[in-house]
Automatic annotation (TrEMBL):
<dbReference type="InterPro" id="IPR027417">
    <property type="entry name" value="P-loop_NTPase"/>
</dbReference>
<keyword id="KW-0175">Coiled coil</keyword>
<feature type="coiled-coil region">
    <location>
        <begin position="930"/>
        <end position="964"/>
    </location>
</feature>
<feature type="coiled-coil region">
    <location>
        <begin position="848"/>
        <end position="882"/>
    </location>
</feature>
<dbReference type="Pfam" id="PF13558">
    <property type="entry name" value="SbcC_Walker_B"/>
</dbReference>
<protein>
    <submittedName>
        <fullName>TIGR02680 family protein</fullName>
    </submittedName>
</protein>
<feature type="coiled-coil region">
    <location>
        <begin position="436"/>
        <end position="477"/>
    </location>
</feature>
<dbReference type="GO" id="GO:0005856">
    <property type="term" value="C:cytoskeleton"/>
</dbReference>
<dbReference type="InterPro" id="IPR013496">
    <property type="entry name" value="CHP02680"/>
</dbReference>
<feature type="coiled-coil region">
    <location>
        <begin position="729"/>
        <end position="821"/>
    </location>
</feature>
<feature type="coiled-coil region">
    <location>
        <begin position="225"/>
        <end position="390"/>
    </location>
</feature>
Amino acid sequence: MADRWLLNKLGLVNFWYYDEEEFELEDGKLLLRGANGSGKSVTMQSFIPLLLDGNKRPERIDPFGTSARRIENYLLMKEGENERTAYLYIEFKKGDRYLTFGMGLKGVKGKPVDSWYFIITDGRRVKKDFFLYLDKGYEKIPLTKRELKNRLGEGNFYTESQKEYKGKVNEFLYGFSDLDDFDELMDLLINIRSPKLSKDFKPTTIYGILENSLRQLTEDDLRPMSEALENMDNIGERINRLEESLKALKGLATPYENYNIYIVYEKAKGYLEKYREIQRLNKQINDLTEEVVKGQKEGQRLTEQLAELKNELALAEEKLKEFARSDIKDVRDELEKITIELEEGYRNKKGKNEELERKKGLLREKELDKDKYNSRLREIVEQIAVLLSELDDYGKESSYEGHWLYKEDLNLKMLAEGAKEHRKKIKRGKGVLEKYEGKKRDMEKLLQKGDRVKREIDSAENKLRESEEYLTQVKEEYVENVVNWSKNNMFMVLEDSIFQQISKDVFSLENREGLSSLNNRVVDLYHRLKGNRTGQIEVCNVTIKGYEEKIEELMVKIQQLEAGKEIEFPKDQEVIKNRERLKEMGIPFLPFYKGVDFKGEICEEIKTKVEAALLDMGILDGLIIPEKYKNLIFEADGGCDKYLFPEPSFLSHNISQYLKVDSTELNGEITFEDVEMVLQSIQLENNGITYVDEKGNYGIGVIRGKGKKEYSLKYIGESARKNHRLKEIALLKEKIEEYQRLIDGEKEKIALLTGEIEKIEKELKIYPSSGDILKGMEIVDEERDNLNKLQRELKGILEEKEELAKELEELKKEVFTITEGLTIEKTVQSYLMAEQGIEDYIFTLNDLQTLLNSKKDTEELLTTTEERVRELEDDLDRILGELDRLYKFIKDKELRKQACEQRLAELGYEELKREIDFCYQIKEKNPREIERCNIDKARLEERLNNFQKRISEITEQLEKEEKFLAVYRDILEKEVQLGYVFTQDKAKDLYELSLKIEKDYSYIAKKSKGEYEDNLYQSFLRNNGILRDYFPKFTTINLSTIGDGSETLDDKYQQLYNESSRKDYRFRVEGKEVDLFLLTERISKELEENQLLLTDKEKEFFQNILIKTVSKKVSAKIHHSRNWIKRMNIIMGSMNTSSTLKLSLKWVAKKADNELQLDTNRLIEILEKEVIEAKDIEHLSQHFSSRVREILRQSEDGERKNYYTVIKEILDYRKWYEFKLYSSKEGEREKELTNNAFYQLSGGEKAMAMYVPLFTAVYSRYDKAKKDCPRIVALDEAFAGVDEENIRDMFRVLKEMDLDYLLNSQVLWGTYDTVENLAIAQIERPDNSEYVCVSRYLWKGKEIKYLG
């Protein structure tokens, strides 16, 4: 158990009704007891899983999963409280290591809760050596987040991002490679924690918990598919719109085709009529030319006939002269006169009848013209009405307010001027809107780019998080290795402070540069240890060297002493210098001890005490100097020394009783007397300035003293000095031996220290390598560099976005400035439509002007025609009157002729009649004939002249008609060139084409042009709404403006062109005007392309997105879930329960809902294929299409779901399966544990059936984490409804699964023999007070102990 992290301590500071409280756990286990409302649930939910993932969503805090409880409800509770800061923390322990995870919360009234997170990794512990508040003595103030951050210092973790915190918790404690696994664990802990578990005791509850703990696909996983589906839907909608448009075009096509046939028939007929008229005129010219030739021949004949008639007339007149003498002549003359008058009357009657018929014909023509002009006028009025309606539409479309202002007066000039000015405004508005929308598109592209970079940043952050988790794991392993290394060392054992500092250094490492100093503390320890030992070795060597030098010195001394040299009295350096100076000055001197010796009878004891006293007194080495040098010594700059100047006392006891002058050291300068005088100056009794006695007491002036007791003779006397020298030699040899022993000891010490250094070096060599950390840091740096690069790119995008936003704002202002006064929606499309509308308005206005001019011309022509009709009607009345008079005249003459004929009969006229008649006939006939011949000849001449004139006139008319024919031909050719009915073959004669048209399309003339135009217009009204995206226009085409154009025409020809104008549909695509056929062709092509595109998108959707991407993730999650369930079954199968009940869990694939959908097994089988066949794709398409329709249909009554929601629901693989729990007992077969079967189980079996699968689910989740992860389970109202004996078994199951737990209960104590260690906290809040009391108990397996 010590090999993994255990939940060790829970803490609250200033949270809910807790001021400061800690709950310590025992071996990771804690039971919170208390009555309802005491706060045990609040306490538990404040830690698990809140402090594991930092997610503060209300449904995660509320144990019932509702949104009723929010985190702020636990902060600002007191009336008038406006602000509060709180802390929650949780401590984990592993061996001697501690990790603390915590959250800070700040609630401010009226604002969202501010939160921050921290992890203490350096070993410090809350309330031990780390405090979350400032202690003012009288008050504890929780730290602000800045104060906390400063207090944490380097090496610990601080963030204000819940996502980062969750990642770090996973990194330090669980080590899931995929955060989805961590989230699944958290969801499972929440679901198991719910108190509903104890209240809703049945298998279906387990199924819901297990299902909810499985993770769905993430938004990043689903976004490409929802976007693709939405894209496909957009394409589908576009296809629907195109199909609707195509259908609308087909609705236009039939009346359009009939109208086009009528128009081409009408124009072909006009062309043929004119063509035939020209043929008729040519025939007339030919006929007239033939008539001229015939006339000329006739003229010759008439000349000859005239001469013959004149001769015959002369003969007849002679005969009649004779007849004239009779009465018959008068009657005959009268008859002849009457006959002539009657013939004249007949001729006049015939002429009048012919004139009447001619006038009637002219009248019919003029009446036809009148009808034609009236029809034309009606058409023009209808066209004007259509144009006015179109102007209304275009005025609305272009938001041209001037239209309504000047429409009533039909002031075309003002309308046109206003429209042109309005067009300028629209163009300016469109221009700035194009800039604005261009910038918006740039912004959209930038936002899309930003979204892409954000997604890449999210991916990079995930990779960085994973690499940081790896680095943290490596760091943890490094720290653990350091701990183990230190434990295994003999010398390089790290103190706790050094270990904490190393741990802090490791976790505060931010770059590879700091890695080089990571081992500094260990290296410092190494150097310190080695340095200490090296220093000791050096000290030993120096000591040895000192000993050896001393031995050498001692050897020299021994050699000197053995050579007989006396031992010099030890002197200070200053004394030596002074005596050298005295020698240089030539001042003689003698040390006292060299100038004296003991007398022979003096005992050794006295000798020793006297010499010891003289040594202490400074006299022993004091200099004896002749009296004469006394002043010289002190006058000079004297050095440090002692001088003996005698003050003898000859009559007293003095030292001369013991000492005598030794003459061996005396020279010429120092005399016996000089030495003796000094001896006389040193008294033996204490009655002088200087004295010494036999006991070693002495005095010098005010000084009194006593010589050393332990002293041996050394200086006074030659024998003493010799003995002293020998002793010194022996002592020196002893010292040499001692020094040698010391040297040996130091060498042993050096050998020991050298061995320790070697061991220290070996321990250093096996110090854990930081190579893995370096590798981890390199990976982190690489991922961080990539993230930084993306973040810089995003920053650039955001900066560019900011600039674009400014530009957009400026353009927006410009848009509002320029479009001020315009009521058009401020979009380019709207302004394009408005621009097209105003263009159409101006064009239509021009058409209207043309129509108004045409109306005026037609009205004038109608007026002229009506006047002519009236004139012709008057002429007809006149002619009819004249005919009536002629009828009366002829009748009168016919009666008179009859009377004359009766009179002639009475006079015998019949007998002479033949001859007389013949003569009369000649006389009557020939003059007439002559006259006739003259008249005929004149008439012939006139006729010939008329023929010539007529030929000229017809020729002139022919030229004009040919021009008209050219116009008719041009009109027909241009109509044919439109290609609306057929395309003219260039090699084919237009006349033949016209004949074919006349023959094939004669049926079309059953209706009038007005009827066809009305059908056309009605069809336009029915379909133009569907085709509004193509700016449909019902317009009039003037053929004189089609093709190459026409030169300036006379009004009569222009009138023909105007009359040949036709109605047409016009549409606009990408700024270009197209006709119905081009639009139909374009839409058909676009429809085909979109259908192909949809097919491609469907392939991409199923092959690239669903199959290659999403299906892999779904399959991975399904595989992951199956493995989880498999592990659960293995665990449950291996459990030994007190009963023979065995449990197993199955995850059963569901069947299809209908024939269009697939069974789950079949669906997974297809999705997991490496290569998917076309039929499988078709099955997938049917399945998902059916599911989409089903979900959208279900959402029709409520809020319509977007495609992301639909796709999320469709690809919720959890709904593709259902959990089923099976049970079996010894000797029985396995059977499904339905709710009914569950209710038949015993209490213990029910508990096992409920909790074992859930505990197993948790265990299997932990099994996928790091081996040392904490294994926590939390239960609200733990084991409620389970009897005591079975609760005991529940604790045994928890123990067997090695699960730590945090439980709460109203009645449970947990004091069972299956529980080894348990911390128990009794929480009380009497009378719902504003404070909480906690009583602590400890259960150690056999007895419960009250802790306070």
